[in-house]
């Protein structure tokens, strides 16, 4: 197992790494919707979903993979009433990257770090 680090995603805010490679898999830590350039988080929940996905993509790209290699995502949302807007942003992201939709879980949580509305983690696989 080896750590993945990139300046194209926000730095970890705790004792963990942005992502790891493990055999053919690349696994990201949960990605908050922080823009790595500005260090700011958008207010809009759909923009937060998109930024979280872009951050996860930056990590798997550092490992030589693309959006089409993502096989599983876990979406954490502060309020499931935002599901429709998050889902639309999620769909646009994968369509824009011409990637198939991966398997996904989506759960409502009581609170996210930095009071984000969304956090997303992904698993990508080399090969097929």
Automatic annotation (TrEMBL):
Coiled coil: none annotated. It holds the Pfam family Ribonuc_L-PSP. It comes from the Bacteria. GO terms for molecular function: deaminase activity. CDD domains: YjgF_YER057c_UK114_family (cd00448). PROSITE patterns: UPF0076. GO terms for cellular component: cytosol. Belongs to the RutC family. This is 2-iminobutanoate/2-iminopropanoate deaminase. It comes from Vibrio hangzhouensis.
């Amino acid at each position: 197992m080896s750590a993945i680090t990139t300046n194209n995603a926000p730095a970890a805010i705790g004792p963990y790494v942005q992502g790891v490679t493990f055999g053919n898999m690349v696994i990201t830590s949960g990605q908050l919707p922080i823009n790595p350039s500005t260090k700011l988080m958008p207010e809009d929940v759909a923009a937060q979903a998109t930024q979280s996905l872009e951050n996860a993509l930056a990590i798997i790209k550092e490992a030589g993979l693309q959006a089409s290699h993502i096989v599983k995502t876990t979406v954490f949302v502060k309020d499931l009433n935002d599901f429709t807007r998050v889902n639309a942003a999620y769909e646009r992201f994968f369509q824009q990257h011409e990637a198939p939709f991966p398997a996904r879980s989506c759960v409502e949580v009581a609170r996210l770090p930095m009071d984000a509305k969304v956090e997303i983690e992904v698993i990508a696989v080399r090969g097929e």
